[in-house]
Amino acid sequence: MSHEPIGSDMSNEPFGARLRAAMDTRGPLCVGIDPHAHLLDAWGLPDTPEGLASFTYGVVDALADRVAVFKPQSAFFERFGSAGIAVLEQATIRLRDAGALVIIDAKRGDIGTTMAGYASAYLAEKGPLACDALTVSPYLGFGSLQPAIDEARAAGAGLFVLALTSNPEGPQFQSARTVAGPTVAGAVLDGLRELNADADGLGSFGAVVGATIASTDEDLDIRGPLLAPGLGAQGGTAEGLTKVFGAAVRNVVPSSSREILGAGPSATALQDAADRANDGFRRVLGY
Ligand SMILES: O=C(O)c1cc(=O)[nH]c(=O)n1[C@@H]1O[C@H](COP(=O)(O)O)[C@@H](O)[C@H]1O
Questions:
Q1: CA 137–ligand 1 middle distance (angstroms)
Q2: Which of 73, 77, 214, 287 is the most buried (most CB within 10 A)?
C-alpha cells in the first residue's frame, strides 16, 4: 500500500474532493479512535487522562501517515473532561498535519442557533476543534442542520448525517414514514442528495449507513460519501458491503475501531492490522 502524503495543494479543495484523493492515495479505511476503558487496560495503560493520551498518540504515531481517514469518538475523550478534550484537540492537529483527514464523531444536533455554536467549535477554520468533517444527528429536523451546512461550506469541511445506523434500535425511528411520505432515513438521504447536487465529483455531505444493516430499499446514491461503521466488532464484514451499498459501494468509507485498536499497543501490529483491513476494503470496493 502507498504511504504517500496526500499533497498540500489539496488544502483549499472541498471535503469531498479531499476525501476522494485521500482514499485513492492511502486506501479507503477509516480508523475509529475509540479509547474504551477495556482497551486502555488491554494496552497496559491506566484509565486516566495520561493513559488516554498514551493510547491516542500511540495510534496517531503508528498510523497517521498511512491511513486516509480517522474518526475519533468524542465520548471517550469527554469521559475525562477538559483533559480528555485537550487530547482530542492535539490528536486532531497531529493527524491533519500528517496529511490524514479527521472526522470527529460527536453526533451533534440542536436547534439552529445552538447548532451554530457546535459548528463554530468543530467546523470553522479557526475553531478549537477544527476538523475535516463532523457527524451530526438530524432528529431535530434536517433543516436544523443548516448552520452546520453553511459553516461546512464556508470552511471546505463536510458533514456525516445519521441515516441508517448500525444499532438494532435504529429502524424504530429511521424506518418510520414522514408526513411527506418517505421514511425518515429516506428524507435524510434526499436532503443530502440535494446538498451534493452541485458538487464536482464526490460531494461533501455524507450519510452514516451501518455496515450491519443487511440490505436497504433506500436510494444510497447521494453523490456523497457513505460512512459505514459497524465493521468487525459489531459483525459487519468487508464482503457484506457490496450487498448493503450496491452501486454506491465506491463512495463507502469503511470505518473500524475496536477491530484495529485491539491489535495494539505494538505500532507494527497496528500497522499490519490497518494494512490488512485496507487491502480487503480496496479489493471489495473496487480500488
Ligand atoms: O457515527 C458513527 O460513526 C456510528 C454510527 C453508527 O450507526 N454506528 C456506530 O457504531 N457508529 C460509531 O462507530 C464506532 C464503532 O466502533 P467499533 O464497533 O468498535 O468499530 C463507534 O464510535 C460508534 O459510535
A1: 13
A2: 77
